[in-house]
């Protein structure tokens, strides 16, 4: 019983990026395809060509294959430029198995802290994969951080 309760805790990862909050939000959302690790984190694997976040409530997170097929990963449920985006997360799964990812952007004196929280582990079919997916959230945060560093260096 204690294990199930532990599995229902959200997974949180944060990364600090050396840019203003407006840029962090823009890079995260508008340049999603440039930093997301598509080769290792997609439904179509090597056939995946790009991915995107549609920037409005009800917009989709999706990947597009080389043949043009779109595969939905989730739906934007909160769109608050430049501080927050929340979306359901169900790549390749039924809507009834929705998980949620909440991304919060907080300005500080040295740039922006980006906090990613992944929750929604109530469904028994999802609970076993919580520990396995924690490194994926960390990998995504690391990819975003590297992308921001590259962008800042290119602008210098």
Annotation, overall tally of beta strands = 7
Please give the radius of gyration in angstroms.
16 Å
Reading off the top of the CATH hierarchy, the class is best stated as: Alpha Beta
- Tell me the major beta sheet: 7 strands, antiparallel
Could you name the CATH homologous superfamily? START domain
β content, as a range? 35-45%
Task: Indicate the percent of residues in helices.
Answer: 25-40%
Provide the domain count: 1
User: Helices and strands: which structural class?
Assistant: alpha+beta
Low-confidence stretches: 1-6, 126-135
How far from one another are the termini? 53 Å
Overall residue-averaged pLDDT value: 84
What tags apply to this protein structure?
156 residues, globular, alpha+beta, 5 helices, 7-stranded antiparallel sheet, Alpha-D-Glucose-1,6-Bisphosphate, Chain A, domain 4, disordered N terminus
């Amino acid at each position: 019983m204690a294990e199930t309760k532990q599995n229902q805790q959200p997974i949180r990862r944060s990364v600090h990026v050396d840019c203003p909050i407006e840029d962090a939000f823009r890079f995260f959302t508008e340049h999603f395809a440039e930093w997301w690790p598509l080769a290792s984190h997609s439904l179509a694997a090597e056939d995946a060509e790009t991915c995107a976040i549609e920037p409005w409530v009800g917009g989709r997170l999706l990947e597009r294959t080389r043949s043009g097929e779109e595969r939905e990963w989730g739906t934007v449920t909160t769109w608050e430029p430049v501080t927050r985006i929340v979306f359901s997360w169900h790549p390749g799964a039924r809507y009834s198995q929705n998980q949620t990812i909440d991304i919060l952007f907080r300005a500080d004196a040295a740039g922006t802290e980006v906090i990613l929280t992944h929750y929604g582990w109530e469904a028994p079919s999802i609970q076993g994969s919580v520990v396995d997916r924690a490194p994926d959230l960390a990998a995504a945060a690391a990819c975003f951080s590297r992308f921001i560093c590259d962008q800042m260096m290119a602008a210098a």
